[in-house]
TrEMBL record:
Residue ranges of every copy of the Uroporphyrinogen decarboxylase (URO-D) domain listed in the record: 20-29, 141-157
Top-rank EC class of the record's enzyme: lyase
Gene behind this protein: hemE
InterPro entries listed in its UniProt record: UROD/MetE-like_sf, Uroporphyrinogen_deCO2ase_HemE, Uroporphyrinogen_deCOase
Subunit text: Homodimer.
Source species: Sulfurimonas autotrophica (strain ATCC BAA-671 / DSM 16294 / JCM 11897 / OK10)
Keyword Cytoplasm: yes
GO CC aspect terms: cytosol
Protein name per the record: Uroporphyrinogen decarboxylase
Stretches of the chain forming a coiled coil according to its record: none
Single GO MF annotation: uroporphyrinogen decarboxylase activity
Highest taxon above the source species: Bacteria
Length: 345
């Protein structure tokens, strides 16, 4: 029998000896060991496409920092890339698609469903390799971007501060946007199914750009598609916990619904508010402000405050978004140690 995974138990709200912790973007630029592998890979996409290297950087934070779960090293944009869009990462500018979606013909040329999901073999190979090396008591988190977050890049062609091209479509041609979201949703369902079949223990769906949508439109253009993915996976794999992480939507908390297990609380949403609104329905994850990692004192203060709210029950420690590249490794270790210290039963 494999060792019990504390992280998986915590996702289902079971009693655990302490509150487990991981960090979004934990496999990344704050670790010199990651930068060495990245340099060897040549560029970011090469690293995503190389199972041995992706496996190595996935395991680094478990070994170096002491987190309770590994999260698969990949990128959300491998999905539109394999749907036939031309992805590149431009130094200093981030991801770019040379052929953004403007009309129905552009949607029709995208590869959909099983064909697109089957092209992501390097991701599934990475998962299988990680599972041969990850300790039995550590969980492996697989992930995807939400259809809305993926669509923003596919429509804008790159990251954006205003989302005006997407939002113009949302208000002026909502049918077109729904067609894009539906096509992406079908690929995501199959992609996550294949991740589970390759060996992941937990799914997280990131909606990084949730806050770009006004609250009374959020369900229509994002949340309902996330719920559709979660319910598809839950029906097939009820033993796999699902985490939903929509960033920056405190105004939507009253409207959260769906068959999933953990709600990721971002740092702009008070933990007390999330607990009051959702704590009885879902396990809560989060939500330290990532910049507190620059100070060990500020980190300890936040960890103790979160523990006082959650009391070690129905909770997973995490940051309220990703760790930043210039955080000292010692401070990241301190965060993990403090989460374990305050929650040990």
């Amino acid at each position: 029998m494999p060792t019990r995974k504390i992280f998986v138990d915590a996702c289902f709200g079971k009693e655990t000896p302490y509150t487990p912790v991981w960090m979004m973007r934990q496999a990344g630029r704050y670790l010199p060991e990651y930068m060495a592998v990245r340099a060897k890979a040549g560029n970011f996409l090469n690293l995503c496409h190389n199972p041995e290297m992706a496996c190595e950087v996935t395991l680094q934070p478990v070994d170096i920092v002491g987190v309770d779960a590994a999260i698969l090293f990949s990128d959300i944009l491998v999905i539109p890339d394999e749907m036939g869009m031309n992805l590149s990462f431009v130094k200093g500018e981030g991801p770019k698609f040379s052929d953004p979606i403007k009309n129905e013909e552009d949607i029709d040329r995208l590869i959909g469903g099983e064909e697109a999901a089957s092209k992501l073999t390097y991701v599934y190979d990475t998962i299988k390799l990680i599972k041969t090396k990850l300790a039995d008591d550590k969980a492996l988190i697989g992930f995807t971007g939400s259809p809305w977050t993926l669509a923003t890049y596919m429509i804008e062609g790159q990251g954006t501060k205003t989302y005006n091209v997407c939002k113009k479509m949302m208000y002026a041609n909502p049918e077109l946007l729904h067609k894009i979201l539906a096509k992406v949703t079908e690929v995501v369902k199959l992609y996550m199914q294949k991740q589970i079949e390759s060996g992941i223990d937990v799914v997280q769906i990131f909606d990084s750009w949730a806050a770009a949508i006004e609250p009374n439109k959020y369900d229509e253009f994002s949340w309902k598609y996330m719920v559709e993915i979660a319910e598809y996976l839950k029906e097939k794999y009820p033993h796999i916990p699902i985490i939903m992480f929509p960033k920056g939507i405190p105004a939507f908390l009253d409207n959260v619904y769906g068959n999933f297990d953990v709600f990721g609380v971002d740092w702009s949403t008070p933990m007390e508010l999330a607990k009051e609104k959702l704590g009885d329905k879902y396990v809560l994850q989060g939500n330290m402000e990532p910049c507190r990692l620059y100070s060990k004192e500020a980190t300890t203060e936040a960890v103790e405050d979160i523990q006082n709210v959650m009391q070690g029950k129905r909770h997973i420690f995490n940051l309220g978004h990703g760790i930043l590249p210039d955080v000292p490794v010692e401070n990241a270790k301190h965060f993990i140690q403090e989460c374990h210290r305050v929650s040990k039963k």
